[in-house]
Amino acid sequence: MTHVTDVLTTLQGVAQRRELIARGATGRQLSIAVNQGHVFRPRKGWYALPGTPSDLVRAVRIGGRLACVSAARHYGWAVQERPGLHVCLAPNAARLRTPLDPRERMSAPAPHGITLHWADRVPSEPLTRLVTSPRETVLQIALCQSAELAVAAFDSFLHLDPDGSTELDLWLLDLPETILAELQDCTALCHSFLESIGRVRLAHAGIRGRHQVRIAGVGRVDLLLQGWLVVEWDGLEHHDNGPAHDEDCRRDAELAIRGFRSLRFSYALVMRNWPLVLAAIRAALAGHRP
Start and end of every DUF559 domain (predicted)? Predict the structure, then answer.
């Protein structure tokens, strides 16, 4: 079943029967591929390769496209890690199914952990196949998520695509003014979800600094305040192992030698105990430079 699996591979691992037939597959080949376990049917009229990302399969099974923060995660943007699936449905979507069983109809409202978004009745761009477009994703996040979570995702989009700032500005103009007013300026300088969250929260507190500053003998630091206080945001993805911890300690020592003071904050502290983080930064700034 090389032909069927090859075609599916070019279609992100999941496709409708008509797409496969249009690319030369036959009904008999599809049946054989299913019987031999080379592909499976996530939903009537759909075929997928084993190993296809589960979020894509679940969105197709429901009857829509991956959307909002689920689409952002698929694109590699920085979003908060938490369970749940966001799916965008066509205006005329019907026969919705639960994400785990294509035979079970989805009841209203959607089950816990499933957030449904509805596409515009007159879309401003051609609808994408499996995942909402970057523009759709940006607008869905802005309307669905808190302002700080939205800014973190947009910062990440700009970091991955520095030339996308003009597009992002144009997309955001489609938002209601009340939503747009809540969004901080986005920047490609923030390299992680935690860094963006810290930037937004410190800005609300009236504290601004320079991001991703290079210091000789140390490398880039996440945030430099008043030219001497270094703040590092230690997300789990880069700091939760022995060698990374050793490197962090070395950097802190090098900073001390060069007359800087450094503060480090973990994901748990930033997301669950922000008042403590803010108090520590304010106390350090109120003290004397080393």
Answer: 225-285
